[in-house]
Amino acid sequence: MERRRYYEGILRSTAKTFGFREVATPIFEETELFIMKSGPNILNEIYAFQDKGERNIALRPELTAPVVRMFVNSMSNEPRPLKLFYFGQCFRYERPQSGRYREFFQFGAELIGNANAETDAEAIALAAAMIKSLGLREYKVRIGHIGILRQMLANANVPPERLPEVLQKLDKKMYDDARDILGSIGVGDDAADEIFDITETVGGKEVLGKVSEDVGSYLRELVDILAAMGVVDVEIDLGVVRGLDYYTGMVFEAEAPSLGAEKQICGGGSYSLSELFGGEKVFSTGFAIGFDRILLAMEKEGQKFENTGVDAYVVPVSDDVRTDAARIVSMLRGSGISADIDIMRRKIGKTLNHASNVKAKYAVIVGKNELKENSVTVRDMSSGDQKMVRLDDLVSLFR
Ligand code: HAM
User: Fold this and answer.
1) Among residues 300, 325, 359, which one ends one of the domains?
2) Whether residue 194 sits in one domain with residue 256
C-alpha cells in the first residue's frame, strides 16, 4: 500500500500540474448507464445485479460514463473547459490473469471543451507526462482516429447495430472473422481489404496521405502541438480501434512491451456520451491509465521502491528519562516533524538498531547528563556522525 500510495501521489501531482481537478463518483451506478452505449451484451462483462429494492445496479467497469453522468447532473454550468481527473477501482467480469483482474484501479482524466486539436493534445500530453513521471522507461504511444473506420464502414453500408462486432474483430486484428462478418452484411472482399489496409497503417505524419483531408490535417496539427509540448515519441497507428463503443474521433493507447499479452497500460480518445445521458452535446476526450498494470511494468523493469522512515527516532538512554523523551517526541510531532520513540523499553544499542532497521534518518538520544544542560544528542543514522543540540534548537534543526 505504501508503494501504491507513493506512485498514486506522483500521478495526482502531475495531473494538478496540468490544471486538472480531482473528482470521485460512486462505486456503483444504475446498470442502464453502462448499457446505453454498448447494448445489453456488456452485461456479460460487468458485475450487475438487483438490490433489495429491485433496482438494477452495476459495479462500475470504468469511470468515463460515471464522470459524464456527474457532469450532466451537476457540473454543466461550470466554466469550460472542464479538466477533471480521478483515481478509483473498477470491476470487470474478466478471466483473471497476470495484469488482468476483476478488481483493478484506474487513474484517468476527462476533458470537456472545444473540438480542436489542442484539447486532444492536452489529454495525450498529460497521459505521457504521467507515465514519464512514474519513471517507466519502455513504452510506446500510438495515436489513431476511429472516425476513419466508422466512415469507411458506413460507406460500405454496414448498419450501425453491426458496427461494434466488426470493430471488436478489427481491434483484435482478427481479419478472417472480420471478413466473415463483413461478408454476411454484403461487403465484398475488395472493400474489406481496403479497411484492413487502413488498420495496418503505422508510421509518421507521412502515412496520413491515405486518409481524408480533414482527418489528416487534424492529426497533423495534433502531432505538431504534441511535439511543441515535448511529446515526440508518438506513432500514428490507424489500427487503434479501442474496446469501448463510445469513441468518435482521435483514439490513443500506450503500451509497455515488457508486459507481454496484457501490455496496454493506458487507453483513451474523444467520445460522445453527454447527449446520451440527457445533457447537451459537448466535445469530450480523456484517458485512463491501468494503475495495477503500470506498477507491474515498472516492477518488470526492475524499479525498486524503498520506503523512507521517520526523520527522528527518539531514544531514551535510561528508564528515568522516558518522560522527558515523551515530551521531546511530542514537541517534534507537534511541529510537523515525523518522529517515533522507543516504547519497547529496549536498551540503547537495540533501540538504535531498530531505528536503523526502520530507516529513521536521525536518532535523538536523550540522556540524563545532556538533559541537565537542556540538550540532546542527534545522530545521523547513515554517517554515524553525532552532535549535541540544545532542545530550543531541535525543531529548527530538523526543519
Ligand atoms: P480501457 O482501455 O477499457 O479504457 O481501460 C483503460 C486501462 O485500464 C487499460 O489500458 C488497462 O491498462 C486497464 N485495464 C482495463 N481492464 C483491466 C483489468 N481487467 N485489469 C487491470 N487493468 C485493466 C477505459 O476504461 C476508458 N474509460 C478510458 C477513457 C477515459 N476513455 C476516455 N476517457
Assistant:
1) 300
2) yes
On whether residue 305 sits in a domain, the answer given is no
pLDDT score for 175? 96
Is 0.85 surpassed by the pTM of this model? yes
| Rounded Cα gap, residues 122 and 344, in angstroms | 53
pLDDT at residue 307, rounded to an integer: 86
- Residues 169, 153: contact at Cβ < 8 Å? no
Give the CA count within 13 Å in the CB-facing half-sphere of 355: 31
Parent domain of 373: 312-398
CB distance 265 to ligand 1 below 6 Å: yes
What is the reported pLDDT for 51? 97
The CATH number of the domain where 382 resides is what? 3.40.50.800
Residue 295 CA to residue 250 CA, distance in Å, equals 26
Could you tell me the distance, in angstroms and rounded to a whole number, from the CA of residue 356 to the centre of ligand 1?
A: 41
Select from 274, 300, 326 the last residue of a domain. Answer: 300
Cβ of residue 64 lying under 6 Å from some atom of ligand 1: yes
Residue 15: its pLDDT value, please? Answer: 98
For residue 93, how far is its CA from the centre of ligand 1 (angstroms)?
13
pLDDT of residue 39: 75
Mean pLDDT along residues 284-301: 97
* Residue 293 and residue 330 in one domain: no
The answer to whether residues 232 and 296 belong to one domain is yes
For cell 515523551, name the residue. Answer: 326
268 Cα: distance to centroid of ligand 1 (angstroms): 8
